[in-house]
Specification:
Blueprint (H helix, E strand, L loop, with lengths): L16 H19 L11 H4 L7 H21 L1 H4 L5 H15 L4 H24 L3 H25 L1 H4 L22 H20 L3 H18 L2 H16 L6 H18 L1 H5 L1 H10 L8 H14 L10 H7 L18 H32 L7 H16 L12 H18 L11
Helix pairs in contact: 1-3, 1-6, 1-7, 3-6, 5-6, 5-17, 6-19, 7-9, 7-10, 9-10, 9-11, 9-18, 11-18, 12-17, 15-17, 17-18, 17-19, 18-19
Amino acid sequence: MTTGVATPPTPVPLHTQGTDALRVVAMATILLVMLVGANPFHDGTAPENAASGAGGNLGNQILFLIMGGVAGTILVARGRAALRPLASLPVLLMLAWLAVSTGLSIEPLVSARRLVSLVIMTAAAVAFLLAARDTRQFATVLGATTLGIVALSYLGLVLVPERAMHTALDIIEPEHAGSWRGLYPHKNAAGAAMGAFVFIGLFWAGMGQRVLGILLAVAAAIFLVFTKAKTSVAIAPAVLVLTWLCTLSGATLWRRLVLLVPLCVLLTLTVGSVLVPQVGAFVANVASDPTFTGRTEIWAFAADNIARRPIAGYGYGAFWESVFYGGGADAATWVNRATDAHDGYLNTALESGLVGLALTAWWLVWAPVTDLQSRSAGRRLDPLAMLFLRLWLFAILVAVFESVFYQATNGLYFLLVVSVLGLRYLARARVIAGGEDRP
């Protein structure tokens, strides 16, 4: 059967308007569940919203079940041939190791529940890639849905400003008063979303919807600035520059240097400042905030605990729930309130050990560049490949400061999986452009 991203060898036509409408509804449903969730316009003054979300959210659980049903239907309709390109060694090994991590978890039931949610989210990412009729429909649904999210976020600033931005009355972090968050519970989540939406807008414009695409990109960029989310504000333009540099040469070595060296440098200056005293001394001399808004304390705490269970970690999704409800174990500072490591790489090592971290680096960091090179012809990158490249690079750089990886309800992680698997499809199957005689 066909898809907007790739097609197996034997397409089966389905020429009905009803099928086309179902595709659009399915894709929009998946996007809204993953990019918005069950609690838009978060009330920061409500005590129940200040508690840990580790125990799960009933609304999100219901939405995930709905999304899982939609995704399952799409995957069954597409068949095994559509999934075959995804069966790469790093992906299969990481899935197997997550199962092992769950079995060895300090909180097996927590890990099992989180793993079910992660499987549903991953299935939804695959289904989203497979559902579109062609790349033009893929761009239209992705662009229109995200434009609606941005528009609602702006509308919230007018109609319910106390919900669409942080206020001095917020129970948690009232110091962020005035920072925009729109539909999202926190300025950092809003910033990550808006940064990604800038790239989606540029992709939509590149696919022919210039006015709407540029409108989306500009509106998202302005909103991003007013979130005051320092990480996303700094990384989004850097991604635009780095991915442009990728078009100067098609050489694999050049692209690996351009895309991966900045990540290595960033990890060295941040997490490395905690692990290596000399790096810490250097950062203290040159940085205005060598603690990276207090993150170094939690990184040190995470590193200490990784050293206690370095191979398999504490179990997928288990460590921070146990720490939170246990009063922070032996931590006597703000780590008591933490629910993640504020670094995707450290968080992965905590949950699935150094083995899990190595496999994550393989399938989420190294393999996407390989897939990009397997498809690209010379220096040119078409709009779809550029979209996936930008979303991927943005997510792995943001993950230096936020626990992005394997967070089933994290919209940026969803877009990361879409981009990684999208690059895989582009490397292994034929793209169907808009305008072909396809269903």
